[in-house]
Write a structure and sequence with these properties.
Helix 5 links the parallel strand 5 and strand 6. The strands form 2 sheets. A 7-stranded mixed β-sheet has the order 8-9-7-10-13-12-11. It is α/β, with parallel strands linked by helices. The protein has 10 helices and 13 strands. The protein has 2 domains: about 160 residues, NAD(P)-binding Rossmann-like Domain (Rossmann fold, 3-Layer(aba) Sandwich), CATH 3.40.50.720; about 150 residues, Dihydrodipicolinate Reductase, domain 2, CATH 3.30.360.10. Helix content is about 25%, strand content about 20%. The relative contact order is 0.14. It is found in: Cytoplasm.
């Protein structure tokens, strides 16, 4: 692969979970990346099948490629690993990847939290590799850019967590809201549940409906509290659309000023975060790594309202993984990514 920016640089990239929705989004974005080359595409349930069997929209870009099984020689000649696996799986593979000193970006929840006790509380199982937790940097570049640059392992943030944290963190840091009072209502498209068939996300259950789930127990709550240093009551909702997250966040006011001003200062130099005067919509960021945020002060109730919109497969997953990898490998942070959504 040749590139005006990177010349002949080819970073051979392995994708674990390449046959899933996030794997497909990684492949779509990497098809236009100037340096990251999809070299090994692991998809256990579809091993031996062509990429187009799971991702027909990628048939032209990966016409001669098939999914592979992960085996003993799977990481030979690999320069970067992306893992888009269900939680619990990366714990069993992480030591092998880290021992080989291969840069590793994991989308699973296994290494996002600071300690094994918190992981067990929210995920219900004992962590199988607690000794590796401190080797991972939490992967939201807008929060931890310098740490990500020097990291060998990054745990990319959850989709709901990314949306809520980017709306709330600057206001917590500015002393504008009480961190013990945060409430997050967020709605996600059905692709956030993955491509495996489930009754709850089948067409007849989702179409024309709007439902809450995971009441007081959704796992992304732990990330929100870790990143903001506060207490969060989080309620996720499922909406009849394919992709996108809109997070509506509330907190009690403790400081003066216009919250929009604090957001504008916090994100003035961020390439993927746009502070808008208008309430953002998921369509504005569909297919992109962009984030649109806004906020309002309500003096009548003494509360701050903050909103953010992201694509759950973009900034909430594959896009953020690539953004982190770009930083880790010394590439342009925005390589292969765009803050511009597909509309209408």
């Amino acid at each position: 692969m040749q590139s005006a920016a990177y010349g002949p640089l080819m970073i051979r990239t392995a994708i674990l979970g390449a046959s899933g929705y996030v794997g497909g989004e990684l492949l779509r974005l990497l098809a236009a990346h100037p340096a990251l080359v999809p070299a090994k595409l692991f998809g256990e349930s579809k091993a031996g099948q062509p990429v187009s069997s799971a991702h027909p929209h990628l048939a032209a870009a990966f016409a001669d490629r098939s999914f592979e099984k992960f085996g003993d020689r799977a990481l030979d000649d690999v320069d970067l690993v992306f893992a888009a696996l269900p939680h619990g799986h990366s714990q069993r593979l992480a030591a092998t990847i880290l021992d080989r000193q291969i840069p590793f970006v994991d989308l699973g929840a296994d290494f996002r939290l600071n300690d094994s006790a918190t992981y067990e509380r929210w995920y219900g199982d004992a962590h199988e590799a607690p000794e590796l937790l401190d080797r991972f940097v939490y992967g939201i570049p807008e929060l931890h850019r310098d740490a990500i640059r020097s990291a060998k392992a990054v745990a990319a943030a959850g989709c709901y967590a990314t949306a809520a944290i980017l709306a709330l963190k600057p206001l917590v840091d500015a002393g504008m809201i009480d961190p013990a009072s945060m409430i997050v209502d967020a709605a996600s498209g059905v692709s956030g549940a993955g491509r495996e068939a489930k009754e709850a996300t089948g067409f007849s259950n989702v179409d024309g409906s709007f439902a809450a789930y995971g009441l007081v127990s959704h796992r992304h709550t732990a990330e929100m509290e870790m990143a903001t240093g506060g207490t969060v009551l989080f309620t996720p909702h499922l909406v009849p659309m394919t992709r996108g997250i809109l997070a509506t966040c509330y907190a009690t006011t403790t400081g003066e000023g216009d919250p929009l001003d604090f957001l504008r200062v916090a994100y003035a130099d961020e390439p993927f975060v746009h502070v808008t005067d208008q309430p953002p919509a998921t369509k504005w960021v569909a297919g992109s790594n962009g984030v649109q945020v806004t906020a309002r002060r309500d003096d009548r109730t003494g509360r701050i309202l903050a909103l953010s919109a992201i694509d759950n497969l973009g900034k909430g997953a594959a896009g953020q993984m690539i953004q982190c990898a770009n930083l880790m490998l010394g590439l342009d942070e925005g390589a292969g990514l765009s803050p511009i959504g597909v509309f209408p």
